[in-house]
Structures are given as structure tokens and as C-alpha cells.
Specification:
Number of domains: 1
Number of helices: 2
Radius of gyration: 29 Å
InterPro entries: Bac_GSPG_pilin, N_methyl_site, Pilin-like
Oligomer: single chain
Helix content: 25-40%
Strand content: 5-15%
Keywords: Coiled coil, Membrane, Methylation, Transmembrane, Transmembrane helix
Largest sheet: 2 strands, antiparallel
Pfam family, one: N_methyl
Strand order of the largest sheet: 1-2
Protein name: General secretion pathway protein G
Organism: Pseudoduganella flava
């Protein structure tokens, strides 16, 4: 009889203790990995929030620059900032262009990554008018700046509304 074969009637396998030890080890590793995964998701959302704010603010500044250059019609008492975020996507007539061209500043309004994914992208942003104070932003006839309407504090210790 060969030494490699088990005795008749006996099969080799794992004992219940070996299986329990394996399950405990895997669960400990999984419980350590879960917080790291949550941290990575939060970090990605915060990076997306920074990118979105930067993109909108750059579009607002470009709109104001075009107004100051005389390419966008404005009334004498207007600030030169767009009346809404949608105008940045819809575009405005370039009054200096002979071919009636439109100026576009955004392809789409970026979504606030912390906002409800089913709501329109515009709903995740608070808008500050040029005439409102920085510590008490109010939405009025123009959009001077945007801020995240998200409760909570970033990993940098600054509330999302102040980014």
C-alpha cells in the first residue's frame, strides 16, 4: 500500500477549528480595510468638489472678463456677472462678433458630489450675489460666487460651505 493514500474510510479535509480561524482572520482584515475604503471615497468626493468649485468660479470670472471687454451687453447698474449658472451653459450673444456668435463658458454645470444625485446639478450649489457680504451670502440678481450647500467639515478641518 502506498504511503500517500489515506487509510480506507478516512478522507482529508479541514476541521471546524481551521475554518473558524480562517473566518476570523478574514473578518479582521475586512474590518480594517472598510474604514480605509470609506476614507478613499470621501477623499475622492472632496477632490471632485474642489474641481467643480474651481470650474464654476473660473467660468464666472471669464463671463465677467467678457463683460468688461464689451463682448456681453449689460445695463449700467449691472455688476457684469451672469444672472444665473444656466447662462454659462446656454451662452450669450457676443455683441462684437459680426456673425452673431455666442459665447459659452461651461459645457454643463458641475454636480456637487455631496448633493443628492437625483437632483439637478444646479441645486447642489448656493449662489452669492455681488452685492451680498461674504459671511452672509444671498442670492439676488447675479451670481458672483458659488459655495457647496453641504453640511459637514472636510478632512482639512474647513466646513464645506466655506470652500
Amino acid at each position: 500500500m502506498s504511503a500517500c493514500r489515506p487509510a480506507s474510510g478516512m478522507t482529508r479535509g479541514f476541521t471546524i477549528v481551521e475554518l473558524l480561524v480562517t473566518i476570523v482572520i478574514v473578518s479582521v482584515l475586512a474590518s480594517a480595510a472598510l474604514p480605509m475604503a470609506e476614507l478613499a471615497v470621501r477623499r475622492n468626493k472632496e477632490q471632485e468638489l474642489r474641481r467643480s468649485l474651481r470650474e464654476i468660479r473660473e467660468a464666472l470670472d471669464n463671463y465677467k472678463l467678457a463683460t468688461d471687454e464689451g463682448r456681453i451687453k449689460k445695463s449700467a447698474d449691472a455688476s457684469g456677472y451672469p444672472p444665473s449658472l444656466e447662462v454659462l451653459v446656454e451662452g450669450v450673444e457676443d455683441i462684437r462678433s459680426a456673425e452673431q456668435r455666442r459665447l459659452f463658458f461651461l459645457r454643463r454645470i458641475p454636480r456637487n458630489p455631496f448633493a443628492d444625485g437625483k437632483a439637478p446639478p444646479n441645486d447642489g450649489w448656493g449662489k452669492r450675489s455681488y452685492s451680498s457680504r461674504h459671511d452672509d451670502p444671498k442670492e439676488e440678481s447675479d451670481v458672483y460666487d458659488v459655495y457647496a450647500q453641504t453640511e459637514g467639515t472636510g478632512m482639512n478641518g474647513i466646513p464645506y460651505r466655506e470652500w
